[in-house]
Automatic annotation (TrEMBL):
Signal peptide, first to last residue: 1-19
Pfam families to which the protein is assigned, alphabetical: PBP_GOBP
Source organism (scientific name): Apis cerana cerana (Oriental honeybee)
Classification via SUPFAM superfamilies: Insect pheromone/odorant-binding proteins (SSF47565)
Matching Gene3D superfamilies: Pheromone/general odorant binding protein domain (1.10.238.20)
Annotated protein name in UniProt: Odorant binding protein ASP2
Length: 142
């Protein structure tokens, strides 16, 4: 999988989001989320290389650890409180990353809503981090 948070959560797409290349969108999500990724990486003792390649479990990172990093970022942007997901911070991020393209914003908001529904019922924050972002990235880039 390509690099991206998340959470961004993060957090976009060549086939799902028309006319925008994947590398450009990934860079925009990373720029938006980096102020929250690095403090979480420090807190969890995760290297910068692993943190900036959050969707790729490599260099010794395991998926549980990456899920915890994603959950930490989600908490920092007020998307995750306990095991409850809040869509508003995601909408804010989508508005920034996809600024000026109303069609993309509408499409990506739909993906975000679907992935929040998909992650409901999870009882572990780290699992929520992985489940939400895996869904988001899969739907955005496939």
């Amino acid at each position: 999988m390509n690099t991206l948070v998340t959470v961004t959560c993060l957090l976009a797409a060549v086939t799902a989001v028309r006319g925008i290349d994947q590398d450009t969108i990934v860079a925009k999500y990373m720029e938006y989320l980096m102020p929250d990724i690095m403090p979480c990486a420090d807190e969890l003792h995760i290297s910068e290389d692993i943190a900036t390649n959050i969707q790729a479990a490599k260099n010794g990172a395991d998926m549980k650890q990456l899920g915890c990093l994603k959950a930490c970022v989600m908490k920092r942007i007020d998307m995750l409180k306990g095991t409850e997901l809040n869509i508003e911070p995601v909408y804010k991020m989508i508005e920034v990353v996809h600024a000026g393209n109303a069609d993309d914003i509408q499409l990506v908001r739909g993906i975000a809503n679907e992935c929040i529904e998909n992650a409901k019922g999870e009882t572990d924050e780290c699992s929520i981090g992985n489940k939400y972002t895996d869904c988001y990235i899969e739907k955005l880039f496939s």
